[in-house]
Amino acid sequence: LTLSVVLLATFDYIHANHCTTGLAKYMETKCASFNLKFVGLSDCKFTCQGKNYKGQEQITNFNLANGLPCGRCEECCDGICTPVQISSQDPSTPKSCS
């Protein structure tokens, strides 16, 4: 039993790292497409910063995709971390905003 718990914990840890790496790459690529650099993540939004074509400082915020997990039993919905809607008749199929 102990070995099973350790293996499950390891599997979840690897999965979480893979997700984090993919999300980081997405945010950096999105920022770079506007000639900006990724500077921060907060709940369901991330911020890019740099200089625009006139040399002026530019800060741009983007929402993370709807349906991404953001908290305990919560998901991103239009840039806001929102509780997942769970049907009382079938809790195995939550209602997503995505």
UniProtKB/TrEMBL annotation:
Protein origin, superkingdom: Eukaryota
Main location: secreted
Coiled-coil residue spans: none
Database matches in InterPro entries: Salp15
Cellular compartments annotated: Secreted
Record key words, sorted: Glycoprotein, Secreted, Signal
GO cellular component terms, A-Z: extracellular region
Signal sequence bounds: 1-16
Family membership noted in the UniProt record: Belongs to the salp15 family.
The protein's name in its UniProt record: Putative ixostatin
Source species of the chain: Ixodes ricinus
